[in-house]
Amino acid sequence: MKKIFKILGLVVLLFLVYFGYATYPKLDLISGFSSKSLASGHFIDNRSQEIIERGDNDIDMITLATNKIDENGKFALSSVYGLKARKAIYREGLGATLINDDFDVSKPYEVPKRTKLDNNLPFPYGNKEPKDTAFANVDYAKLNAAVANAFDAKGQIKKRTRSVLVIYKDKIIAEKYDTGFNKDSKILGWSMTKSITSALFGILQKQGKIDVSKPAPIAEWANDERSKITITNLLNMNSGLEWEEDYNKISDVTKMLFLDTDMSQAQLNKPAQFKPNSHWNYSSGTTNLLSGILRKQFKTHQEYLDFWYSALIDKIGMSSMLVETDMAGNYVGSSYGWATTRDWSKFGLLYLHKGNWNGEQILDESWIKFTATPTNTSNGKYGAHFWLNAGGKFPDVPKDLFYCSGYQGQMVAIFPGHDLVIVRMGLKEDPEFDFNGLLSGIVGSLKK
């Protein structure tokens, strides 16, 4: 018996040693992700704790967290085995923010001023219901089969699609939602928010207020090799700066999203590893650095907050969209944009129509071309904060496709040659989800 107890004791000791070495350092990130996800999903989209834990938080290691929502205090609290408790607070207009112990929740804060689109036009140029339209050249049986195939059959949890929306010639020709979701559900776009951030630079460039071909206006880089990095290099993700984008461990990106007070500083402080325009490296830190650069283009913080909405989001009627901020008040332009599936599609339509929105040129056509031009060293897969199919990632899909892409398979796909926008939101991404099959099936339903 004593021998058995000794063996059990050794097993427990080994487990504790392993836990301390492999898991304990990650607890801040686990509880941080869980509380942030819970606060956002509940207070932005009114999802229940059960739905969020079963869906959004059903990720390896994140399931270790124990969670609590405080309705009155408008916050979520998470911990792992009672350790490393993290809190995410919700503030109307700013969304959910993961905070640390030093954050003063009583401090006054500014919120963006919003102007909702108010006209009698149907979707997409107004918020009225779209008119039914049938196109003779659309094989609806094939179209609906392709869309239906993106969703799980009853009892399955494999594809985990939440919504698919297909817009052809500005008309909705297919729209489907998973159980528990509908046209009013706000869904996190994750890195599709990067494309929103890019568009804002295009607007400033059109207004003559910035020149993206010039060096990034960062004082800390003025006296070293980083002084040669342009805003274009940052938009193309080929600045040459050091960065590790790995969500499966403690890395630059996970520390930034779940530990940093000011996310715009994470990439700013990194050294140069390569010369600009010589080495493509995807970096969420770069996008938040760009958000910080945007902030410095305005005299006041209020102007910065308002600009994202007045110049773009509200102007094209994305009334449901909310971009969340970090503790320092920066928009988390890399990751935290929420909107309905229909509103995400409006952003795709803006680019489909070469920057024109119902007669108003919001972005120059040249900016759209710049966006969809392959970045040097990206092998045809990346432009200016948009992904491309120029390199043939999706072999059965036209190569002129360019798209916004986010964690777990969020996508706004733009097909210039087919007057087509496709949105897919869900919890599985390529290769577990067959994007090539979905996109090619829909494109194939359009008869020439």
How is this structure best described in words?
- The protein has 448 residues and is an alpha+beta fold.
- It contains 13 helices and 15 strands.
- A 6-stranded antiparallel sheet has the order 6-5-15-14-13-12, sandwiched between helices. The protein has a 4-stranded antiparallel sheet with strand order 1-2-3-4, covered by helices on one side. Strands 7-9-8 form a 3-stranded antiparallel sheet.
Brief rundown of the structure:
The chain is an alpha+beta fold.
Total helix count?
Answer: 13
Helix content: 25-40%
Widest beta sheet: strand line-up: 6-5-15-14-13-12
Mean pLDDT: 94
Assign an overall shape: globular
Question: Topology of this protein?
Answer:
Layout: H1 2-23, H2 27-45, H3 49-54, E1 65-70, E2 75-80, E3 83-91, E4 95-99, H4 140-148, E5 161-168, E6 171-177, E7 187-188, H5 192-206, H6 231-235, H7 252-259, H8 265-268, H9 284-295, H10 301-313, E8 322-323, E9 337-339, H11 341-352, E10 356-357, E11 360-361, H12 365-371, E12 387-388, E13 402-406, E14 410-415, E15 420-426, H13 435-444
Antiparallel strand pairs: 1-2, 2-3, 3-4, 5-6, 5-15, 7-9, 8-9, 10-11, 12-13, 13-14, 14-15
